[in-house]
Amino acid sequence: MAKKSKNKSKSVASTLLPVASAMEPEDDNLMDDLLAQLDSKAEEESAVAPNEVQPNKIVKELEAKPKQSAKDRFQARQARRAAALAQNVVPDDPEVQARLEKEARDEEEAINKLCQHHGREIFQINPDGHCLYSAVADQLALLGKLPGSQATYSATRAAAANYIESHADHFLPFLPVPEEDTAGETGTGLMSPQQFQHYCSTIRSTAVWGGEPEVQALSRAFNIPIHVIQDGVPPIVLHDPSENTGTDGTIQQGGIWLSYHRRMYGLGEHYNSLRPTLMS
């Protein structure tokens, strides 16, 4: 998946998004509104025009604060990131737009070819921040590992959070400490107990995206291999509950099958469920 060609230690940390520190209510609302609008652009029926988002205005408001605490600087960086996302979603340059569209088509074609080879077909998952967990839930329902009524992103989020929380020694060395959060600094380069608990809470109860650590946790929590098809090297990554990660040389026909997309929606990483072709 994202950055899936790296070795064990690097792959665990490669896709993890830092956990944001708490914001003041007014700033929190400001950023929530902006990011919600950006995320909604992934869904055609709720698209927002670029001039309605105004991310650069938010950046200026945050950076204009007379007192720049660490939290203020973090909020400004988040706003700049959102502004960059907005620019990537609807670039002003037609040539850039054409290039991004071509990259998305090429990625889709490469993934579809791999799916056909392995008798799989993409089942679209809603791009709402829960995509990894919803895709895994869909696969678990198909395999009879979870009853349909329980096959939800809430269930898989809880499973991932619980597994990581109960295996802290395995995951902590690979979880980056949020650079903006200096509270409870341990001096070891590892998360403090408070930061780790907050990280697990965000997995369990927010829409933060999942990455390599969460895929590994889900594979082990449900004791099932997870295959991830991508447009990259290796083209298929196997997360095995006993051996962590592998390449397409160790493919198993059973287990969970997902596709990982870098360019499908333009807002970042996305996962879909890959159902057997005969089911469609």
UniProtKB/TrEMBL annotation:
GO terms for biological process: protein deubiquitination. PANTHER family: DEUBIQUITINASE OTUD6B (PTHR12419:SF10), OTU DOMAIN CONTAINING PROTEIN (PTHR12419). This is OTU-domain-containing protein. SUPFAM superfamilies: Cysteine proteinases. Pfam families: OTU. Residues 1-28 are annotated as: Disordered. It comes from the Eukaryota. GO terms for molecular function: cysteine-type deubiquitinase activity. Residues 120-277 form the OTU domain. Signal peptide: none annotated.
